[in-house]
Amino acid sequence: MSYIDGFVIAVPTANRQKFIDHANKGDSVFMELGAVRVLECWGDDVPDGKQTDFRRAVQAKDDETVVFSWIEWPDKPTRDAAMGKMDSLMKTDDRFSPEKNPMPFDAKRMIFGGFAPVVTLTAKK
């Protein structure tokens, strides 16, 4: 059964292209480690809620856009093996180097988690 890592971040709107460039470099590592797909979704219709919402969850400022992302893995063991390699890769792979591929957002406000799907629907072809 597949496994999903989900992320929500606030990216300065002016850094949209920097974010895309950063994601294209960094996300390729997840694919090499066995991910089935990676989606980085730029907020387009992210309404303010009455009690909570995506913007509040990441303390987004007026000049920031919420990004919703996920990595789809074929299963949890593949994901766990990939995450086990991340500490080493962060020290050795330029795609994770803060100098060569700096994060264009405040990672301290990122929310993330791992999720086991309980319902999966697909379109019939």
Give a structural overview.
- The two termini are about 20 Å apart.
- This protein has a four-stranded antiparallel beta sheet with strand order 2-3-1-4.
- The chain has helices spanning about 15-30, 55, 75-90, and strands spanning about 5-10, 35-40, 65-75, 110-115.
- The chain has a single domain, classed as Alpha-Beta Plaits (2-Layer Sandwich).
- By secondary structure, the protein is α+β, with helices and mostly antiparallel strands.
- It is globular, with a radius of gyration of 15 Å.
Structural class: alpha+beta
- Tell me the Rg in angstroms: 15 Å
Mean pLDDT: 94
Beta-strand residue fraction: 15-25%
Roughly how many Å apart are the termini? Answer: 21 Å
Low-confidence blocks of residues: none
CATH topology: Alpha-Beta Plaits
Number of helical runs? Answer: 3
Based on the structure given, which CATH architecture is correct? 2-Layer Sandwich
Order of secondary-structure elements: EHEHEHE
- At the first level of CATH, the class is Alpha Beta
The number of distinct β-strands equals 4
Largest sheet: 4 strands, antiparallel
Overall 3D shape: globular
Give the spatial strand order of the biggest sheet.
Answer: 2-3-1-4
In which range does the helix fraction lie? Answer: 25-40%
Count of spatially separate domains: 1
Overview in brief:
With 125 residues, the protein is of the alpha+beta class.
SSE layout:
Blueprint (H helix, E strand, L loop, with lengths): L2 E10 L3 H17 L4 E6 L11 H4 L6 E10 L2 H17 L18 E5 L10
Antiparallel strand pairs: 1-3, 1-4, 2-3
